[in-house]
Specification:
single chain; about 100 residues; mainly alpha; Trp Operon Repressor, Chain A
Length: about 100
Amino acid sequence: MSLKHDEQTDELFRSILALNSVDECYLYFEDLCTNREIRDFGQRLEIARLISEGKSYLQAAQILGVSSATIGRVKRCLDYGNGGYQMMIKRLGRRM
């Protein structure tokens, strides 16, 4: 599960790192993504948090109203991915 590095993707990530507030994120991401895509990103992060806390697929599905397929995808990333979810869950800590 590795994204190929290229200049366009590097520039995208640099642009995200240049954002200074949640309000700026809303402005930028509403131009960059669909509302659904933004909600899906947030939902996936919340699934990762719930699963990391020991919640079952069923509990996560009931809490968030998502399919087990979506939960399974996030779980695979938690188990076999690059550690991105774990890194962000740890950094966000109590803010989540």
